[in-house]
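To illustrate the input format used throughout this study, we show a single complete record. The first block contains the structure-token representation of the backbone; no residue identities are included at this stage. The design step must infer an amino acid for every position from geometry alone.
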């Protein structure tokens, strides 16, 4: 098995680091966006059901008024149907409100998570900057050592 140099390991570590950083930034963008879409969708569904409920309630009031005035069995049956429709829509709106509340809770928990991801991405970028500085300093120190060795060899040869 061939021996791997430190430079190869360093390149591999840098690639892994960049991949992790890219994944974190992508997940940050997608996470909040998906929860925002889910919240918007449930909010619009809630509003639609609420409008239907209001229309059904209005219709029920009108039917109740006509049933009260006429007193016919047909009007009473229509009133029963309108009441049943209102109850069904009321249940649907309660369910939609619960779904919207859940989506809103998810969205609210997603925001602090996004802040965490942003902090991690910032820490990774800071680490990357420090890493580059350390690498440059290490290379400079290596070059300085090589220069010192060469000058020491030259002085030794000139003394002999």
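Output of the design step:
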């Amino acid at each position: 098995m061939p021996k791997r140099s430190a430079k190869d390991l360093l390149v591999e570590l840098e690639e892994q680091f960049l991949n992790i950083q890219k994944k974190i930034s992508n997940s940050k963008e997608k996470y909040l966006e998906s929860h925002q879409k889910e919240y918007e969708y449930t909010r619009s569904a809630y509003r639609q059901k609420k409008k239907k409920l209001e229309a059904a309630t209005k219709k029920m009031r009108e039917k109740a008024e006509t049933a009260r005035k006429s007193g016919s069995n047909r009007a009473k049956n229509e009133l029963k149907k309108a009441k049943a429709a209102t109850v069904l829509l009321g249940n649907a709106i309660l369910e939609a409100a619960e779904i919207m509340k859940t989506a809103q809770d998810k969205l609210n928990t997603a925001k602090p998570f996004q802040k965490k991801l942003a902090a991690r991405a910032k820490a990774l970028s800071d680490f990357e900057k420090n890493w580059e500085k350390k690498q440059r300093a290490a290379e400079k120190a290596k070059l300085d050592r090589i220069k010192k060795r060469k000058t020491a060899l030259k002085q030794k040869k000139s003394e002999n």
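Structural context for interpreting the output: The chain has a mean pLDDT of 79. The first helix runs from residue 6 to 70.
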